[in-house]
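Sat 14:20. Reprocessing the chain from the morning session after the first attempt stalled halfway. Input below, unchanged.
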Amino acid sequence: MIPDNIKKDHVFMAIKEIDENGIPASRNSTKFQLSYNNRLYPPKYVLSLANKYANGKELQP
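Finished this time. Tokens:
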């Protein structure tokens, strides 16, 4: 379940973190991709990182 307090800004911060640090091999997507600025991101990992900014901890896979 996605926490209600994750906002657009948290998602953008997560995408920026992925751009800077990359995606761990264990967190790559196998089925779906989030497209932003002509780049693809694993949506579950993006939400996991967004939760870190909203609630102080990364969500488990």
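The longest helix spans residues 8-21.
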